[in-house]
Prior knowledge:
The complex is a heterodimer.
Chain A: H1 2-37, E1 47-48, E2 57-59, E3 62-64, E4 69-70, H2 73-103, H3 107-122, H4 125-150, H5 170-194, H6 198-206, H7 211-222, H8 224-240, H9 243-248, H10 267-278, H11 285-315
Antiparallel strand pairs in A: 1-4, 2-3
Helix pairs in contact in A: 1-11, 2-3, 2-5, 2-8, 3-5, 4-5, 5-8, 6-7, 8-11, 10-11
Chain B: H1 26-62, H2 69-72, H3 88-119, H4 122-135, H5 140-154, H6 161-185, H7 189-197, H8 202-211, H9 215-231, H10 234-237, H11 259-266, H12 272-305
Amino acid sequence: xxxxxxxxxxxxxxxxxxxxxxxxxxxxxxxxxxxxxxxxxxxxxxxxxxxxxxxxxxxxxxxxxxxxxxxxxxxxxxxxxxxxxxxxxxxxxxxxxxxxxxxxxxxxxxxxxxxxxxxxxxxxxxxxxxxxxxxxxxxxxxxxxxxxxxxxxxxxxxxxxxxxxxxxxxxxxxxxxxxxxxxxxxxxxxxxxxxxxxxxxxxxxxxxxxxxxxxxxxxxxxxxxxxxxxxxxxxxxxxxxxxxxxxxxxxxxxxxxxxxxxxxxxxxxxxxxxxxxxxxxxxxxxxxxxxxxxxxxxxxxxxxxxxxxxxxxxxxxxxxxxxxxx
Amino acid sequence: xxxxxxxxxxxxxxxxxxxxxxxxxxxxxxxxxxxxxxxxxxxxxxxxxxxxxxxxxxxxxxxxxxxxxxxxxxxxxxxxxxxxxxxxxxxxxxxxxxxxxxxxxxxxxxxxxxxxxxxxxxxxxxxxxxxxxxxxxxxxxxxxxxxxxxxxxxxxxxxxxxxxxxxxxxxxxxxxxxxxxxxxxxxxxxxxxxxxxxxxxxxxxxxxxxxxxxxxxxxxxxxxxxxxxxxxxxxxxxxxxxxxxxxxxxxxxxxxxxxxxxxxxxxxxxxxxxxxxxxxxxxxxxxxxxxxxxxxxxxxxxxxxxxxxxx
Lengths: 326, 311
């Protein structure tokens, strides 16, 4: 038995080893870019591979194309903006669905909703992206255009104003992302709410609270920290989604969305769409820079994932769904 | 689920902790309750809407062009408007990759799950479990790029089946391991204890009393891994590469075509044939995912109904 345990243990450690190897490989590849781009990488906006037709030059021991200058600010801002739009939509919907399933639905209907959420979680990212690009984006642009011109030109609201474009941009990406993170919000919120002791909820009802009041005063309070964890988990998910955003955001480099409908890009979408052309940079610096962006993305998502799981465990001994919540 | 009784409660009492939660006349409170319930039920409806819209939107574009040619011909030249282009290479490639992932990732995931549930020393298991959960949060493109650097370039495998399978297996292991662990945890400990009391050897107990009753859940995990494998794109783009020929049965040095590539790369091509192929690939992917998720659900239900353990 001890031999078996050791053998299986070695297998179980393989994913852990993969995680460590992943980080090491990326940091190793990114090292020249980290040194060349410096800390300014986080605050610069340009994305110039430099003159790819000239011979690479060497600065401070690092080969790069003449004039190469990279900044990740638009990528980071775009990633955060898209995630915020997605969360603003997905959180109320997912929380509402979880509450409905736990309190206001017969068990069979609840199971059907669970199946619906699993289907949503299972739809391949590219299929969502295709639908977002062909169907959702143009429809949204068409519907939103008259509203966007009616928005008053005052601070904050100004972001909702202006040209709407053809449907590729922040809003479409945010909507598609919302669909992708809703299942994980709903299923983890459902687990949390179901973990609230029945006696506490029934006690509140017996005191004369309505169900909605009991939800707010007892259930939500009971798992408050866990719900914060759910938000963080959904954020981590939205930040890392790749294909759907690459197909619906417009992927513009070097600038951020000028309004809610503007073309933009995220870290993940930039990596997947720029890798191909990065191979043509003979100095290899663009590949290294994309690896640097990947390290940044990895750090954000791992931190979010870890924090989310710690927070949820504080609230209740439930296990969160992995991945997109299948 | 009980409705609130109509017992009137005098609004805000000085000693209520959550005075504001219980404020207002009983009529206003009931109305608010009804609004809250309507909003919760409505959000379920709102979620169903885009799903139906998506299924319809893809089906509408794909169904009119369905034909036997799709599974008979390869995509060869499809992007440039050739006649008779199909998805044979992508379908075969996807099936090959996913089947291999089920073997590699499935084995690793199931064994890791058994170890976590039964054999791991408690201190180590929490740590490993957490790492596996965190691994599930790694963005798929990051995984794909790292796989490209390590396997395709580093080990010189080039675009190949092996590189794709390794990277995709890393991606599905968390799913398989967690579902395996959970379904083993649901096996009543009385089975195990009874078997131990009868003096049955540990490995037999593990096989017959722990793994077998959990088979339904384990199958579910593997089926879900298949669904994920079919649907992933980013981890494959720079590991499997792309080929418009039928996949060769070679592990290394030979790129493989797959369905999600067609969706991503062909929808932006100028030719109409390419667009149609992209819709058809998306349509196939959706059918596969729906069927696999339905199977996974049925597997759980069947194992629950038949109890599993007493066989």
